[in-house]
Design goal:
Elements: H1 5-21, H2 38-46, E1 50-53, H3 76-80, E2 84-89, H4 100-109, E3 116-118, H5 121-130, E4 134-136, E5 159-163, H6 173-183, E6 186-189, H7 195-203, E7 209-211, H8 216-225, E8 228-232, H9 235-243, E9 248-252, H10 255-264, E10 268-270, H11 275-283, H12 294-306
Parallel strand pairs: 1-2, 2-3, 3-4, 5-6, 5-8, 6-7, 8-9, 9-10
Helix pairs in contact: 1-9, 6-11
């Protein structure tokens, strides 16, 4: 129940590992964003394990009903209790301390039998502060590169596909688009969330920008058939570019891309870097050399095989 196609990108990658690990199991799904309905709650109550896939579901503040992406209603608690295993989950933001009520909630929900997979060091520290075992495995959308680096060019493509994030709007976004216009023959825009398109139209003319339909099929089609660099604020939209052999540059707007870029080598640039410096990066050659926590990933996956 997500309006963010980035969640679809995460789930499409994680399903590969879930199918491999639990090939003889009956696997169902339910919504984390809307919470459990009648059927979802019944499925969870009968389940041996509940995997929470991706999303930024870790927060140090107590998650009140209707105010966070992981919706846990009062009736959901008994069904979920002790069954949830995080599978590449991220932290929503930096934190100093975990609120006691949130710590109690997490300890009640999360399995004590398994080590949890978080995709950044902020998430690992948050669970560690609560007394829950977690491994920083980075994001499962990058796990396919734990053996070999993505095969992407070092040099600039003739065109760029860029992304923006409406709920992280910034005055630097307009100059960023102008720099893309200067550096590329053509520019495309992909709205990972539909509201990103309205934001784009509010800050610049779109006469010279080709809009990619806001769905994953259309985006994959562009990445497959068009020689583009993938640039912008959307972390998973950028990572999807790697899968299609495209050079990427993620603009860091919060702890998520910042942490993952620092920890894995995913190409990133800070938002607000001046236009001349951004243009220099875009027009120069740079390698894409990722370093994934292979041991942590293997240990996380192997614990299910052992069980």
């Amino acid at each position: 129940a997500s309006d963010n196609v980035g969640d679809e990108i995460i789930v499409s990658e994680v399903r590969h590992f879930v199918s491999e690990l639990f090939g003889d199991a009956y696997i169902s799904t339910s919504s984390s964003h809307d919470g459990l309905g009648h059927y979802g709650r019944a499925l969870v109550e009968s389940a041996d394990i509940v995997l929470l896939l991706g999303t930024n579901a870790l927060t140090a503040k107590y998650q009140r009903r209707g105010h966070f992406v992981w919706e846990v209603g009062r009736r959901d608690l008994a069904a979920l209790e002790g069954k949830v295993v995080m599978f590449g989950v991220g932290a929503s933001k930096d934190f100093e301390t975990v609120q006691p009520r949130q710590a109690r909630l997490l300890k009640r929900l999360l399995s004590s039998q398994f080590t949890h997979s978080v995709r950044d060091e902020t998430g690992r520290k948050l669970l560690e502060a609560v007394g829950i075992n977690a491994a920083n495995t980075s994001c499962p959308t990058l796990w396919r590169y734990r053996v070999a680096n993505p095969q992407v060019p070092a040099g600039k493509a003739p065109a760029a596909c860029f992304t923006l994030t409406m709920h992280k709007a910034h005055s630097a976004d307009g100059p960023f688009i102008d720099t893309l216009r200067e550096c590329y023959d053509r520019i495309y825009f992909w709205p990972q969330q539909l509201r990103d398109l309205a934001y784009l139209k509010s800050i610049t003319s779109t006469d010279d920008i080709q809009i990619v339909p806001p769905n994953l099929v259309s985006y994959d089609d562009l990445l497959t058939n068009t020689d583009v660099d993938v640039v912008g604020t959307r972390l998973h939209g950028g990572i999807r570019g790697l899968r299609h052999g495209r050079r990427v540059l993620i603009t860091t707007i919060d702890n998520r891309a910042r942490d993952i870029g620092k920890e894995t080598g995913l190409p990133t640039v800070a938002r607000g870097v001046n236009s001349a410096d951004l243009a220099k990066i875009l027009t120069s050659d740079y390698p894409t050399e990722l370093s994934l926590p292979t041991e942590a990933i293997a240990q996380f996956l192997d614990q299910f095989r052992a069980t």
